Structure formats: C-alpha cells, structure tokens
Amino acid sequence: MAMLFADFDAESFLRDHWQKRPLLIRNPWQSWSNPLEPDELAGLACESGVESRLVTQSQASWSLEQGPLPQDRFGTLGKKPWTLLVQAVDHHVPAVAALVEPFRFIPNWRMDDVMVSYAVDGGGVGPHFDQYDVFLVQGLGRRRWQVGGYCDDATELQPHDELRLLAHFEPAEEWVLEPGDMLYLPPRIAHDGVAIGDDCMTYSVGFRAPSRRELIANWSESLFAELADDDRYADPALGLQENPGEIAQPALDDLHAMIAESLLDRDGFARWFGQYSTTPESPEIDWQPEEPISLTDLSLALAEGRPLVRNPASRCAFVRLDDARLMLFVNGQCFPCEGPMALFAEQLCRQDRMPVELDLLTSKPALELIADLYNQGCIGFDSES
Ligand code: SIN
Ligand code: CO
Question: What's the pTM?
Fold first, then answer.
C-alpha cells in the first residue's frame, strides 16, 4: 500500500527548503501507520547481508557494534540507553519501500535508501552531521530533535572515529516529533535526536550527492579502461626551439587538449553517469525467477492485464536523447530505447507499479526488454493483482 501525503506542497518545499534550511512538517500523511514492527527490525539486524549497527551509551561514553547481531543480543542490553540502526530497509521490506514513493518529487538518482532506527528511552546516536539531505520520519514513539548550525570538514569532532560525534554542539532549535511527523534536514547541519520514552522508531529517507572527487576519480577510471595505448601525443609539425629544456606552449596546448577532449565528452559522460549512478551498492535482493520467462508466457501474462512492479532494490533512471529516443539505465546497465519501448522505460522510472499498455505487446524489442529485466529480477509481477 502506497503511503501518500495529504498535505505537502512539494513545489514550495523545493523552492524554500531543499538544500537550504530545515523544515518541521507535522503529520503530512493521509493516514499514518508505522510500516514495520520493532521485532521485524531486530530480526533484520541479525541477518547477514543486512547492514546494521548497535549504539550503546553509558554516561558520556558511546560504543558501536556492527551487525549482524547475535539473536540473543537484545536480551543482554540492560538499562543503559541504546539504539539499533538498520540500513536500506526499503530494499527488504515492501511496506518501507512504499514510504519512499511520496518523495519521488526528487529525482531517482538523488535517492539513497531508508535507514530505520529503534531506540529505548534516552537512546540516540549523539550530536553529529551528515553529508546528505534527509527526511527523518517519526514512525513510533516520540523523539526530541535538536538542530544547530552548519558544519564542514574543519568542524571539531570527539575522538571516537566511527561515530563522528561533534566536540561542541549548540542547539538553535528543538522539536518533539510524534508518529507521522517529519523533519527535513539539509546536508551538513548539526543535529541530535534523543528518544523520549521506549519504542522510538525513526525512518531516515536519505539522499545522496556525488563529491567532485568521486566523480573525477570514477569517470577517469572508466575512460582509462577504454583508451587505447596508441592514442598518443604526436608532433609532426615540431619546429626548432631556442632552448630544448622548454616545454613549449604549443606542446602544452596539445597535451591539455588530449585530456580535455576525453574528460569533456558530454555524451560519453551521460552514458557513463547513468550506469554509474544506477549501480546498486549492495547485491540486489533476489527477485530472479527460478526459470527464465519466455516471450510467449510474458506476453500472455501482460495481455491478461497483470501489472509489473519494480524491485525496490533496483535503481532506474533515464537520459532523454530526443523526442523519441532515450537511454534507460537499470542497475548499472544501459538500454537504448525508442518508440513504445521508450514510453515503457519512462513509466518504469516514474512509478513502482505499472500496468502495461496492450500495444506494447506488439513490439518485440519492448517485450525482450521486459523479459530481460524480469529474468534479472529488476521487475516482477504484482502478487496482489
Ligand atoms: C536516528 O534515527 O537515530 C539517527 C538518524 C540521524 O540522525 O541521522
Ligand atoms: Co544524522
């Protein structure tokens, strides 16, 4: 079941708050219901292949344990405040994936995943800042959020490396969030959330933004893999120069152009970035069918009107080439699409559940694309239909 906003103006949010300043949004949902039970979260934290952390506090000292946690760990926690954090829960739990859909006014490639935390009274991860935008949705119980100023690489941290806690935190604003309330925080703003009472669950709908350093390193690595060794500097017009020690300006211009031509290849960059930004960080949650589907079985199922659903662990995006053509990117692969197939690709990127138009079934390339995505586990048939 999709979770929908009843009262949220995405356009004014983007204009006034996105990447600019925090915003407290009191229960904007049509009807809020906590999508995951605390026990289910604890169960996920014990599974291998799920990234989780347990933070415990005693007086002023913090300790961090990486998951998977032993099944009996929760029985031995005692009275000190603790918090359990589980990463990418939307990839594992469809009801948590549904929570992301109302945030699709932000492009897919900027979306990261949903981290879910569970805390007992007084639990939290301490004052810190993150590099990314986040919507902190209060799922269950209550949490007090304090928000301070902007931080950067020079901001002084406490000696605990992994938790990256702020050495000095001066809250400027403070709110208590109840179930369904949410707080938007732009990147690098200092914040601290502390559970008020037990059974406090917070859903962090997180975004990502590549650093210049990461982009340059990865784009040049991909160029490096493609460039031939005999594509080399040449100077058939070499003239006499007064001092052989000089690296002359015309040589520098030619050398610099060799680099600039490759690095500034806009079309190559678009294709690379589509693939790079849709490559899943963790191995995909397996939706692969036991037997690959044939084109005949696929068209029969689609002709019956069975809607397709996108695997929440799949990353989908596209780059438009012209009115009829685009490049579809799914989990790091590029599929050139045109005509009806391009319309399907747009639908796949727009919504997590899609009925397939009947005239698409007459296009063999479109059916082949759907079969390919289905057999890889990127899409499946809606079991509710
Ligand atoms: C939490 O859910 O306790 C932590 C979320 C955050 O501050 O980033
Ligand atoms: Co944070």
Answer: 0.94
